[in-house]
């Protein structure tokens, strides 16, 4: 298979974890005889420094010519006091909107070997395997905004079409997973939530195999911690999804192992770790590359339909954890920690021994 | 001291836990020579059934003539399909707005004897003692709303005055607690958050003893679980506060022990447990009354400035837990559980033996 991938390393640890993930991608290419052509471009703070633009035209053009995007992370204190239109995060918001990447998939799967690092008791966190589906291009993120010295506002707005497509996406996912969907809203207060709930009710008839429940966001914020094993697919709006997916990430023990996909209906997608640019450890070579490596697996699965290749990466990552190899975020005793590159070597070795 | 208290038992387990808390209040009155005059009124589903109105005029009138309000809980499946203006929750939203109860205080304090019931590891949850201050009468809860079949919207809007008074409230609280304030927003996306952050920056100069940090809501949703011991006072808007305070409640092991106060600047306030009406166990006499009893303690502290009396209730509750007495929500083996009344008896006995 021949595919073009635009690589956007971004800021902080972004370039380090992306470099690691690209190494794994190339090994997969070699082993399975694929040709992945990579083209690098700028986003976020790096793009502001170079082009005074968090998402330069040149980057958009390259992404348009490619089959998928691999992103590191954006942001850092260096740009914190920049004017609104020159903040690194804007590059991220704009690329999501420009490419209509409305479905943000954030799987949270507990690796048994990492549970010591979780703040949750083992019996609560083990066996968790859920997927948060967050609407990514609508809601309060993109509604009309205003601010004066005496008042500010943000409009939370959803059209029927925006809700329908994300609900369809989540129901389809639930159908091929464990057959359960929890739709999260605040229907006792918000009108957007009432429309959301109504559309879920309309849509669910088309998916008779999926058991659908509605739950309020405050209640789910609790149950995600008290009983995360209850969930399969969780679908919610942009703002609630931002909060709940970060919250759910604590279950696994490290943000450093959580991948994400932001996709649209034709399978074009952007893949990035859930974690941020972690400027405090940038350049030290100690960042955990697992989240970005697993994001590459999601790319293979969702954008290229390469199921075996995706599964092989996931198997290798899991097996390296089981063998007791960890980066610094996952061990108390730092002298036992592997560097980003050393840990990536283990993953590559694990793939190689399988051939 | 003479005080008038309006009691709103509400729905589900509301009447049961309120009855228990009133018993404790009366014991305190006797022991400390106070005269608390109680007047009962309807709210929520009970008020809809009786008056076709979740917050009848008569109830508002009684609250206006009193010094504080004690509330049980509202809602239940019976009214789930009611039209929007006849939903029990509306009674709660309206009473908050009518009485301008803009500051919702939700303390989360770990009881050492309850940590077995927490989903968090003991070393993470122990020693937690934080206070969430949620803005309660503004934001997306009360902004303009619209819904058609094809689109819906909710306006998140804050004025400078609304933000200033809640920030002042939170800074004053931090000053007499551990001197730390975490202000939570989504300033990388929302204009309301940018105004919020700006006002926190302006205000903090007036409280030189308080260490102030800003943090994004998604990040706090994680850190509340990975490192809850980090927090002292956490201040945020209505919607984020709803989510984060329910999330933080899991730390203690049961929603059944979490009180709340909703107050305004003149110390008039409404006191209620954080938990809901729990219709599935209503009428069984097994509900945990601790949250409502501790809400009475908050009433004594914040509305009546009766510090010793408040502390005595808190001491008694804590000591009953330490003696190994629990309601059903806190034990695995139900045969060991005390009923609502039995557990309240223990609290009263504990207060009595102290005199
Ligand atoms: C950086 C920020 C704008 C972004 C968001 O809120 O969507 C991030 O938190 C995320 O979840 O990807
Ligand atoms: C019942 C509901 C309207 C209410 C809210 O969202 O404020 C509740 O969740 C709470 O937190 O008191």
TrEMBL record, chains A, B:
Site-annotated residues for Important for catalysis: 141, 186
Subcellular localization(s) per the UniProt record: Cytoplasm
Positions that bind NAD(+): 76-89
Domain Isopropylmalate dehydrogenase-like positions: 4-347
Presence of the UniProt keyword Transmembrane helix in the record: no
Binding site for Mg(2+): 218, 242, 246
The EC number(s) this enzyme carries: 1.1.1.85
Binding site for substrate: 96, 106, 134, 218
GO molecular function, one term: 3-isopropylmalate dehydrogenase activity
Alphabetical UniProt keywords: Amino-acid biosynthesis, Branched-chain amino acid biosynthesis, Cytoplasm, Leucine biosynthesis, Magnesium, Manganese, Metal-binding, NAD, Oxidoreductase
Enzyme class, first EC level, given as a word: oxidoreductase
Known pathway: Amino-acid biosynthesis; L-leucine biosynthesis; L-leucine from 3-methyl-2-oxobutanoate: step 3/4
Reactions this protein catalyses: (2R,3S)-3-isopropylmalate + NAD(+) = 4-methyl-2-oxopentanoate + CO2 + NADH
Gene3D superfamilies: Isopropylmalate Dehydrogenase
Cofactors, names only: Mg(2+); Mn(2+)
Details of cofactor binding: Binds 1 Mg(2+) or Mn(2+) ion per subunit.
Subunit architecture: Homodimer.
Purpose of the protein: Catalyzes the oxidation of 3-carboxy-2-hydroxy-4-methylpentanoate (3-isopropylmalate) to 3-carboxy-4-methyl-2-oxopentanoate. The product decarboxylates to 4-methyl-2 oxopentanoate.
Alphabetical list of NCBIfam families matching this protein: leuB
Protein family (similarity comment): Belongs to the isocitrate and isopropylmalate dehydrogenases family. LeuB type 1 subfamily.
Protein name stated in the entry: 3-isopropylmalate dehydrogenase
Natural source organism: Ureibacillus aquaedulcis
GN (gene name): leuB
């Amino acid at each position: 298979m021949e595919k073009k991938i635009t690589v956007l390393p971004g800021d902080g640890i972004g370039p380090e974890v992306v470099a690691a993930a690209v190494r794994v991608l190339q090994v997969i290419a070699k082993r399975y005889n694929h040709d992945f052509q990579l083209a690098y471009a700028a986003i976020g703070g790096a793009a502001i420094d170079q082009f005074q633009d968090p998402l330069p035209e040149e980057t958009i053009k390259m992404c348009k010519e490619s089959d998928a995007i691999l992103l590191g992370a954006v942001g850092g204190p260096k740009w914190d006091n920049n004017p609104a239109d020159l903040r690194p995060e804007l590059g991220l918001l704009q690329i999501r909107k420009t490419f209509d990447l409305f479905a943000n998939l954030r799987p949270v799967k507990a690796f048994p070997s990492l549970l010591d690092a979780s703040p949750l008791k083992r019996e609560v966190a083990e066996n968790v395997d859920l997927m948060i589906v967050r609407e990514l291009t609508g809601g309060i993120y993109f509604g009309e905004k205003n601010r004066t010295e005496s008042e500010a506002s943000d409009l939370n707005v959803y059209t029927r079409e925006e809700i329908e497509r994300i609900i369809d996406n989540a129901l389809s996912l639930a159908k091929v997973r464990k057959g359960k969907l929890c739709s999260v809203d605040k229907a006792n207060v918000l009108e957007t939530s009432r429309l959301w709930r109504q559309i879920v009710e309309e849509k669910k008839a088309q998916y008779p195999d999926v058991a659908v429940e509605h739950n309020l966001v405050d209640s789910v914020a609790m149950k995600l911690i008290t009983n995360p094993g209850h969930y399969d697919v969780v679908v919610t709006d942009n703002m609630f999804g931002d909060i709940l997916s970060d919250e759910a990430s604590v279950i696994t023990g490290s943000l450093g192992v959580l991948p994400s996909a932001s996709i649209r209906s034709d399978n074009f997608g952007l893949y990035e770790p859930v974690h941020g640019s972690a400027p405090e450890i940038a350049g030290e070579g100690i960042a955990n590359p697992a989240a970005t490596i697993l994001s590459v697996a999601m790319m293979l699965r969702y954008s290229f339909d390469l199921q075996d290749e995706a599964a092989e990466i996931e198997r290798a990552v899991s097996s390296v954890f089981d063998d007791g190899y960890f980066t610094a975020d996952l061990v108390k005793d730092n002298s036992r920690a592997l560097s980003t590159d050393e840990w990536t070597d283990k993953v590559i070795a694990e793939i190689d021994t399988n051939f």
